[in-house]
Specification:
This protein is an alpha/beta fold. It folds into two domains: 3-121, 3-Layer(aba) Sandwich (Udp-n-acetylmuramoylalanyl-d-glutamate--2,6- Diaminopimelate Ligase, Chain: A, domain 1), CATH 3.40.1390; 130-341, Hexapeptide repeat proteins (UDP N-Acetylglucosamine Acyltransferase, domain 1, 3 Solenoid), CATH 2.160.10.10. Helix content is 18%, strand content 28%. The protein is built from six helices and 43 strands. A twelve-stranded mixed β-sheet has the order 10-13-16-19-22-27-30-33-36-39-42-43, covered by helices on one side. The chain has a ten-stranded parallel β-sheet with strand order 11-14-17-20-23-28-31-34-37-40, with no helix packed on it. Helix 3 links the parallel strand 7 (70-73) and strand 8.
Amino acid sequence: MDTTFCRIAGLQGRSGRARREGCHHGIHRMANTPSFTLSELAQAVGGELRGPEDLVIRQAVPAGEGGPHSITFATNEEYVRRALASDVTALIVPTQAPALDRPVVAVDQPRMAFGWVLNKLDRPLTIAHGVHPTAVVAESAQVSPLAHLGPYVVVGEGATVAAGAHIHAGCFVGDDCHVGPESVLFPHVTLVHSVTVGARCRIHSGSVLGADGFGYSMVGGRQFKIPQIGRVVLEDDVEVGANTCVDRATCGVTHIAAGVKLDNLVQVGHNARVGAHTVIAGHCSLAGSSTVGERVIMGGQTGIADHAEVGSDIALGGRSGVMKQLMEPGQYMGLPAVPARQHMRMLALMQKLPEIVARITKLEKAQGDGEKA
């Protein structure tokens, strides 16, 4: 075991441990805040409990912060150091971690265990059962009696809303749109037309799915709009971040496969296709008819050109660009995207460009002087 990690275990660093019951960092804790015991946590995540079974946890905090009945997770020495320097109540740590001076739950995957904590402590937006009196539902729409429609929701002609769906205030579910079971549309989501949302999807506020794709044709020096009459399909377990747009296909389908996660402010163009379990960070843009494979990771501000194709199991660093095809699994960076190691070598050489130019200029001058002589 790493000796540095062991030394950290001896840190005391627990100054400032005033117990501010009911309030921490100026945030009022509501009386109905969810809670659990460390024994419940250990049992749920298959971890080893090193501390009192009945210790109650009521809040999750980042490493380095604390408060009464709080818990954090630490996957390396630095985060353990931060946690032990705070007044956090308990920690989630790797199974190989040494004994610490706090109660801990030791697990193989602390981050996943902390995810259980966050889910347990989450207080989702409230929404009443059934259809709110201010909601407007078209006669031909089909809304399950087990669905939840909040204030001022609009459901268009031919639309369906499945059992367990939560559609919050101000959402628009347009004609021929379908919302699957247990899916959540947060306030002010817009499904414009012919959008299918699968089961257990989460669409965050301000997102627009099914707006017209960006299609125009230049005729006689003027731009003429090409009608966009296709659909948008989201398979099961897709999450769409706030203010993200997925455009309707020109014809056919703009397709987002199962388990895809789109960050805030992502643009998916008409007829684009995104493979299963791909993750796309904020400010990325997929142009029309582009294709992204399965299990792809796209860093922020990455762009995929129209009709370009990205294969499966590829990671693209932030601000990368794919202009044509990129099919070999691996890590890529740059514009156009090249293997990450090659890109890093290119960056290193760029730092030396002024020196290289100066040397070349000096050599050319010396050669010119020699020819004159």
